[in-house]
Design goal:
Length: 70
């Protein structure tokens, strides 16, 4: 069976995982909620990181406004 990264991301969101990318890091959060089968999701994220990363928005790339720039 072929891994479908977009389906996996959708499944994670429906299950309570919030996925994001910060530079070269794949970041997930459960909002301190317990997620059934979390070990399965985490193992799949590790195994298929290269396929998941390009589909996530890079939250680290957002430029901050310099308050001292006039």
């Amino acid at each position: 069976m072929r891994f479908d990264a977009s389906y996996f991301i959708d499944l994670c969101q429906k299950s309570g995982f919030k996925l994001s990318r910060e530079g070269g890091l794949l970041v997930y959060s459960t909002g301190r909620k317990r997620v059934e089968g979390a070990d399965f999701f985490i193992d799949a994220m590790r195994q298929h990181k290269a396929e998941i990363m390009p589909l996530l928005e890079d939250t680290n790339a957002v430029k901050q406004l310099d308050l001292f720039d006039s």
